[in-house]
Specification:
- By secondary structure, the chain is mainly α.
- It is about 75% helix and about 5% strand.
- The protein has one domain: Rhodopsin 7-helix transmembrane proteins (Rhopdopsin 7-helix transmembrane proteins, Up-down Bundle).
- A three-stranded mixed sheet has the order 2-1-3.
- It starts with 8 loop residues before the first strand and ends with a helix.
- The relative contact order is 0.15.
- This is Olfactory receptor.
- It comes from Rattus norvegicus (Rat).
- Belongs to the G-protein coupled receptor 1 family.
């Protein structure tokens, strides 16, 4: 429902108004986004074409890379274009769509990271029953539940955004639309909306982070009973997952678990998890995973051979 909404578009103030810095940001954001697309699409293509990467772990990694690609795409392209404009604006409808997609793919990434932790727990702590428990059908159902859960979370965000009345200022002190910056523009008391925001996004981030860290502590403790080689391989995989979890959840918890107060560093922290993390994830998973690197090499050799035959 829309309440007294006299605002048809918002002005995005971005990260800076300095023309030179905006050009620098254009180059940086473009390089980051191109790197994100290249890295994640390479992982997606490798997993799809490699028979060696058919385990549930890579099934979930495929969807993590997909969510990373979409998550970055909801923000980066528009930010890159806006950095070339003297004044960046976004319509009310586009703003609401951006809020939905940003939270949808962000929440999907959270759920996929939880599923990856579940997968590692079963693989390490229940190795004899691993393929039975984490069958292709079960993994597909878990991913489907993750998509539905993300949609429900995003719809809640949209409901909260549409319940805000906008009747005056329309300058968003941010480089993309999110519920917290919008709260500052609403011409009504936003205490309850902010409380719902913290209990929704904040709770998802905090509870998920704690669940993940506890699960990885249990997994790491169980490695004491494994062989040296098995322990080394499992430890390498788990460390990669833990690094991704900390890099993603740290900024999210900082942004979404506090009252409606803003700090100068908020936009830079948001830049890190919306633009930086999707770029780092494929680097972390490929550099620390020998199977993925070998599969990528085979994919590259096949392409070179096919090109030579032409």
């Amino acid at each position: 429902m829309l309440l007294n909404n006299n605002v048809t578009e918002f002005i995005l103030l971005g990260l800076t108004q300095d023309p030179f810095r905006k050009k620098v940001l254009f180059v940086v954001f473009l390089l980051f986004y191109m790197g994100t697309l290249l890295g994640n699409l390479l992982i997606i293509a490798t997993i799809k074409t490699s028979q060696a990467l058919g385990s549930p772990m890579y099934f979930f990694l495929f969807y993590l890379s997909l969510s990373d690609t979409c998550f970055s795409t909801t923000i980066a392209p528009r930010t890159i274009v806006d950095s070339l404009l003297k004044q960046a604006s976004i319509s009310f409808t586009e703003c609401i769509i951006q809020v939905f997609t940003f939270h949808f793919f962000g929440c999907l990434e959270i759920f996929i990271l939880i599923l990856m932790a579940v997968d590692r727990y079963v693989a390490i702590c229940k190795p004899l029953h691993y393929m039975t428990i984490m069958s292709r059908r079960v993994c597909g159902m878990l991913v489907a539940i993750a998509w539905v859960g993300s949609c429900v979370h995003s719809l809640v965000q949209i409901f909260l955004a549409l319940s805000l009345p906008f009747c005056g200022p329309n300058e968003i002190d941010h480089y993309f639309c999110d519920l917290q910056p919008l709260l500052k523009l609403a011409c009504s008391d936003t205490y309850m909306i902010n409380l719902l925001l913290v209990s929704n996004s904040g709770a998802i981030c905090t509870v998920s982070f704690l669940m993940l860290m506890v699960s990885y502590v249990i997994i790491l403790r169980s490695l004491r009973n494994h062989s040296a080689e098995g322990r080394r391989k499992a430890l390498s995989t788990c460390i990669s997952h833990i690094i991704v979890v900390i890099l993603f959840f740290g900024p999210c918890i900082f942004i979404y678990t506090r009252p409606a107060t803003t700090f100068p560093m908020d936009k830079m922290i948001a830049t890190f998890y919306s633009i930086g993390t999707p770029l780092l994830n494929p680097l972390i998973y490929t550099l620390r995973n020998a199977e993925v690197k070998n599969a990528m090499k085979k994919l590259w050799r096949k392409r070179v051979v096919s090109e030579d035959r032409k």
